[in-house]
Amino acid sequence: MFSSPNLQTFSSSSAGPSQDWIPTSGAAIISVSVSVLTSLAGILRFGVPSPAMDDVVTGAMTTLLAKLGDLLASEYQLQAGVRGDVAFLRAELESMEAALLRIAEAPVDRPPGAQDRLWARELRELTYDAEDCVEAFLVRLGHRHHAPPPSNGLQAGLRGFVHRGLSLLRRAKARRDMGAEVRDIKRRVVEVSERRVRYKVDGVAAKPDVPTVDSLQLPALYPKAAELVGTGERSDELVRMLMEGDEASSRQLKVVSVAGFGGLGKTTLAKLVYEKLKGHFDCAAFVTASLNPNMEKVLRNMLCQLGNGCDSNDATCGGEARIIDKLREFLQNKRYLIVLDDIWSSSVWDTVKYALIENGRGSRIITTTRILDVAKQASGIVYQLKPLSLAYSRKLFYHRTFGMEDKCPPNQLAEVSENILKKCGGVPLAVITIASLLASKRRKENAEKYWYQVYQSMGSGVEESTVVKDMRRILSISYYALPPHLKTCLLYLTLYPTEDYGIMREQVICRWVCEGFIQKKHGKTLYEVGEEYFEDLISKSMIQPQLYNHGNTPISVQSTIRRLSLQNINAEDSKQLATMNLSHLRSLTVSPEAFTYLLPALSCFPVIRVLDLHGCSQVDDNHCKQICNLFHLRYLRLSGTSITEIPNEIGNLQLLQFLDLYMTKIKQLPSTFVQLSHLEYLSLDNQTRLPECLGNLKSLQKLSPHITIRSPTMLHDLGRLSELRRLFVRFDECDESYDEPFVQCLSNLVNLESMQIFDCHNGLGSSIGILTPGPQKLRSINIGPGTINRVPRWMSSLSALSALDITLLALQEVDLQILGSVPSLRNLYVWVKEHRKDRHERLVIGSDYPFRCLARFRIGRGAMEVEFAPGAMPKLQTLHLDFHVRHTMDQFGNFDFSLENLPSLERVIVHINCYYAELGEVQEAEASIKKALDLNPNKPRLELEKHGDSWRSG
């Protein structure tokens, strides 16, 4: 067995058929922030058995079926026999996919049996091999060799004739090879199908040898006192959320949801609060829903606990509707406390809520759930449970291991204790379980060795005691409850190292797309669907903003490796790596440290789809030439490498979707670059010049960091990128000749969602009022730091525009008219570069400028040039003013902005520039603002900050 901690793969951990997914890093949750995914933890950390996790993921089935459909298209001119075989494969695999999904969606307490898992594993491997075969054929037929143009017409004719002849021969050979491989795959499909029938035992439902979900909850319902470390503060906080409030709110029904991932102690906390409070209510009940609840039984149990006198096992109480009627009747005049524990779907709450009437007696309800969306649906108040701090984890660990929470471990165990606690990640269930495991070994001579072995094995199963098995089952329930597509995406995250390693959320989703994990949805891009998957994993508490270490799972040298991550390997590791079969590799991620020992040539990965060499400074132009022959590549990350030139062969990568060339020394892209018709994401350095005919990149959705516009012709070319979602442009030079091309470009970018324009010194087509058809999805615009003379009229036609940050040379009445008519504008920042000394009356914002949705408004920086009339900005909640006291006084003679006329105002932030102002002027400005806010009926909060000192007293 190969057990280097530096090789992270998704391969088999045992001999025999390969497994696609073996998580080599693990913990209780995967760590993410708003934009950065930083580590992998949770369900994987404590060694959820890998066969049960990975055997029933669907492999390449979905993408294979789509490719088989493509293959049947008439353009490929398959021979009749091959067409029949392909049609057979497609029909057979569709039926197998349905069976595979049924296995993957098996209930948590009745996982698929060994025979089903073996069949699913074999089928998954078959789909990968079949997809490799089909895609290789499609690439061979679709690939075009781009020769340099000949020097004369005779050469052109001769070369064209030879090229067409060779192409026909290649296509004929490709079809023959394809026919042979399809027949081989058909034979394997038939064998897999017959084997399942041959060994399937029908009509016998094996009783699961695992405890039920309900029984696993019992320790949380009846914890020992020593296991309540850290719950005191939490329970007090939850009690306050439930019980505090004014007299009116205390009489209303209040629902608080406790949300967090498995093992955090939600049930324990809810039970503790329930015991504290139930004496203050007329009746109380604590009921558990669990993963697949019998709602009739749940409601009957609730009715019984509340004191209705019924038997919880009495089926004569009636169905759900009848029991709900009884509950409503019983609770009509009672103040009740109910805990609904372990909800997994909003449908459970949707049923129970009909029984929990609002009777004005101050009843309280607590729900617990692992799924944030369910918590939000059940309650407007969500208490998100966090992991224990390291200090509390240490107390709990020491108490369970040594019998007292302030007991320090012996010196030889101190370091490994801290490492174990970090790996437990603040999960109380994990701390208690591991501590219990170690307690019996603390006095033995080899205690240090044993503890270290436990630490090392925490990602691969620890010790096979009953309590450890139960802990792993509790942590794995969340995983097993995921739909198959989310299981695949979650397991993929084990590819990344977790300690001190940041991964951009965007890159994760792009890799999911390029790996083929994302299923198409009507009206949405694959990336947008991937964002939904990511949000689903957050909502289901599978990924969280925490940083954890990871464990390691050994891999088999003999297994077929399809996804590989190399981190910090050494010479010995590289020798073992050299014995592996990497010809089936689909994904490769290499750290800079590991590249020194990197494998054979990159060309040895014929079917690779994802290649991430970020930061590997050893990668140079020679490597780039090899990469350009990896025809199956979808995702290529070469940022931070030493590449200085992209070869013409880049055009070979016809399937490429994601390309990152940021932080390289590439001066210009070759003309063949525009042949990448499937490219969706492109990241370049600012100095890299784009080729002509950029508009041929029809699939491009994001180009970062920005495009430098050097001519009106570039704007015309840019306008052909109709799939573009984000646009960031700078202008090398700018005059009136750019206006019309810019507006025409913008009109064609119908999918644009955000736009930034810098270094622009013209009007941007300000006089043009309508964009046809225009970017009706455009939500945010930033125009600056270069300035324009006026707000473009076409902005008022942007129906989705909600955020605008704009720098103007001067503010005029017409600018306010245009801004006020933007229908969905919620956030507006206006920076005025020059104050007009000839203006002595402020611009009045009143009901003539609708600003229907505006909630936040910031204006600055010279003199304060606006005031608010009655009816102005009716929904404005936050106002941010930046102004110069001296300029404002010189120009207008006062600080009367009429803030009292803003009816919804809640918060006012004022930054006053006091340079060259008299002390009395500064005091007058403060007093005027405070007086206006005192007169405002909404009594908004003032936050005032002064910059610079007044230079003389008033």
From TrEMBL:
Residues 60-147 form the Disease resistance N-terminal domain. TPR repeats lie at residues 906-939. It comes from the Eukaryota. The keyword Secreted does not apply. GO terms for molecular function: ADP binding. It holds the Pfam family LRR_14. GO terms for biological process: defense response to bacterium; innate immune response-activating signaling pathway; plant-type hypersensitive response. The keyword Nucleotide-binding applies. Residues 236-388 form the NB-ARC domain. Residues 584-942 form the Disease resistance R13L4/SHOC-2-like LRR domain. InterPro entries: Apaf_helical, Disease_R_plants, LRR_dom_sf, LRR_R13L4/SHOC2-like, NB-ARC, P-loop_NTPase, RX-like_CC, Rx_N. Residues 499-552 form the Disease resistance protein winged helix domain. Keywords: Coiled coil, Leucine-rich repeat, Nucleotide-binding, Plant defense, Repeat, TPR repeat. Belongs to the disease resistance NB-LRR family. PANTHER family: DISEASE RESISTANCE PROTEIN RP, OS11G0550500 PROTEIN. This is Uncharacterized protein. It comes from Panicum virgatum (Blackwell switchgrass).
